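Homework help board

Subject: predicted structure for assignment chain

Our instructor gave us this sequence and asked us to write out the predicted structure in token form, then describe one feature. I got the tokens but I'm not sure how to describe them. Can anyone check?
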Amino acid sequence: MNEYNNHQPVLLNEVLSFVKTDNNQVIVDMTLGRFGHGSNIVKKIGSGSRYYGIDRDNDAINYCSEHYHDDKVKLRFIHSNFSKGIEEVKKYGEKEADFILLDIGVSSPQFDNPDRGFSYRFDSPLDMRMNQDDKLTCYDVVNNYSENQLVEIFSKYGQCHNAKRVANNIVNRRKEKPIKTTLQLVDIIKEVLPAKELNGIGHPCKQYFLALRYEVNKELYELEIGLKEAILFLKKEGRLACISFNFLEDKIVKNIINEFTRGEKKDKYKKIETTNYINLTKKPITASEEELKTNNRAKSAILRIIERR
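My token output:
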């Protein structure tokens, strides 16, 4: 496992700029990963603070539990998904948080480990589970979902222009034999894509793999529930930072932040009611040119911040 544990956190300096240095803070990192953001947050906050690192991947929990401890800050690593994360933190007696971080999406160790089946760069089993205790795998989706279900997934989650053509080819090919590996799936997708997509910028299967990953892990559902629970868990003047990586994710984050910060307009003759939250990033933060020189995965990163008044 060790060779896959390198992870360079994106927008690190930007995230840290919103973290206070006070003592006795409660920090909730809902995407622990390999403690990339977390280790730097812990260095910045004062003594007596408590850090809760949450991840749905057991590999992340086991790795961080084995390799990290701190004499100044109490570290707790929790196996949970987004939607249940805050509920798990409450079990330790916490009632609110000073800072919460969500770094959405697949982590570098997950993506770079061929055994996990997230990448079209390796020939590996069709898995894609972030939580290896979950039952549904990418193999199940590809081999058991109906053609209409596959079309919906590719269209909704991947915004794929050739969703029906690809779904039809998957169904036909799996009649011959089960589709078991990532490169088998890559070939099946590429068989029916037009030359324009095959020769375009980026890998032609990227959005199809993204769509399947979303379906396997219910990521957008988890994001919506988890983000709302996290915002409600902020203390007064507490901040939540959320990093997303594509239009669908950022749309959910943006809409939820707007829901909490804009209030409700009762009728056209009354002003919008004030809320207990403020949007600190009316214009979202993206990676600097300097960061992009050393970390290409930061290219699509979008950071938004909300604060409780």
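Reply (TA_rk): Your tokens look well-formed. For the description, you could write something like this. The beta strands are 26-29, 50-55, 74-79, 97-103, 234-244, 277-279, 302-308. That's the kind of observation they're looking for.
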